[in-house]
Amino acid sequence: MKTQLELHENTQLRNENEKLRADNMRYRELLGSASCPNCGGPTAIGEMIIEIAVAAMEELIRMAKMGEPLWMTSLDGNTTVFNEDEYIRTFPHVATKPNNHFKCEASRESAIVVMNHSNLVEILMDVNQWSTVFSGIVSRAMTLEVLSTGVAGNYNGALQVMIAEFQVPSPLVPTRESYYVRYCKQHTDGTWAVVDESLDTLRLNPAPRSCQRRPSGCLIQEMPNGYSRVTWVEHVDVDERGVHNLYKQLVNSGNAFGARRWVATLDRQCERLASSLASNIPTGDVGVITNQEGRKSLLKLAERMVISFCAGVSASTTHTWTTLSGIGADDVRVMTRNNVDDPGRPPGIVLSAATSFRLPVPPKRIFEFLRDENSRNEWDIFSNGGIVQEMAHIANGRDTGNCVSLLRSANSSQSNMLILQESCTDKTASFVIYAPVDIVAMNVVLIGSDPDYVALLPSGFAILPDGGGMGDSGSGGSLLTVAFQILVDSCPTAKLSLRSVETVTNLIACTVERIKAALSSDTA
Known about the structure:
It is found in: Nucleus. By secondary structure, this protein is of the alpha+beta class. The chain has helices spanning about 1-30, 45-65, 85-90, 115-125, 125-135, 245-255, 260-275, 290-310, 365-370, 440-445, 500-520, 520-524; strands at about 70-75, 80, 100-115, 140-150, 160-165, 175-185, 190-200, 210-215, 215-220, 230-240, 320-325, 335-340, 350-360, 390-395, 405-410, 415-425, 430-440, 460-465, 480-490. The longest helix has about 30 residues, at about 1-30. Mean pLDDT is about 80; it is low at about 470-475.
């Protein structure tokens, strides 16, 4: 059996490697067969791309700094509205949209974040760091080719060709795939800028991707005491036909994929990073984890849990999940995957089930209800109605809702398990994500050991405003996504039974009903 299993693992690894190699070859061929968008003839790829990148950088800087009439203030004074007609007048060489189904989405947002400019530039230019920091928005990213690494020691002049897939944490919103160049430059006034622009125009008759990035990116200005001012511009032409009606208003508001969401995520992640490096932890509070190495390990484990959760929720086609059911609107979308050689997940067949629905309750209220261990037994079927206690926590942001905690269920049948939970919130999205973790493994993490070998399967909630007059006051309704990942058979080669799919679907349905019932008094 052991030999059989090893053979099976090797075959899987070989297949995955072949797929990656094939992907790389395909993209290299695309780069090789690029054609000039002006004359249609062959092109020296490095030169089209440099031209595109330099023009994109110029456009980004103008877009970031211009006021009216390109950016108009809305009637309520809270939001900035993009004037597309003025854009076409200002930038006359703009490429036309691929077809009538594509519409323009553009937004701009600024914030001061707790991170210095060089660290921010490194996060944006290192694809692994970038996709980790923005795991709620980036479902997959890959650098296909590095055309320039920039000046030695920093990223000034760095140029790379990338492919990425952007997501909203819900099975009802299709992901957006883009193939683009990313260019980084330090300007004479000391400001850094990182810009993206789609490269689809380089190919003759390309099948248009669902999302074409017009010059998008950010300007980073150094501030005193290690802070930076970030101005973000997000500008795309996108085919929105696949978005479910429930999410249309949110997507149109710019809070789903727009600059506001990128900046809010960056701000929160900068706080999280600062807290993981903090050494001045007050020791008086009960349950606060003060051991520096233990804090780092636990935060790293929680980060992996969040990434894994986001990857199992969105309507992405590229994760190693196979969709089984739930293509319809009100269904639970069920996917399956076999875990063979991933030490961070239990081996066997895993089901991931997710569903999204609207609640006429403000996002903040839902977030507080779901993250509070005292109300957990109202919705968590596995707590068997028992009391859930917080054993320890790490605060990781200004908002008290941003924290990683260890919970224990008092009358659970599994006394050897703890619950690791991360809750995080910003103006555009909130998450409560948790996973049962073996108590022995958790003790190893708390002394600062490597958390990569701790097996976990995350479940949880993504809470988004419904797009109806949300504002910062937290009024309006919410769009709630509930998702579970559950091990249904610890043998990776076992056959998947319909009963286990039914069980997971019922578990989700039951949890949804409990949440609706518990919050029904708020809606009356």
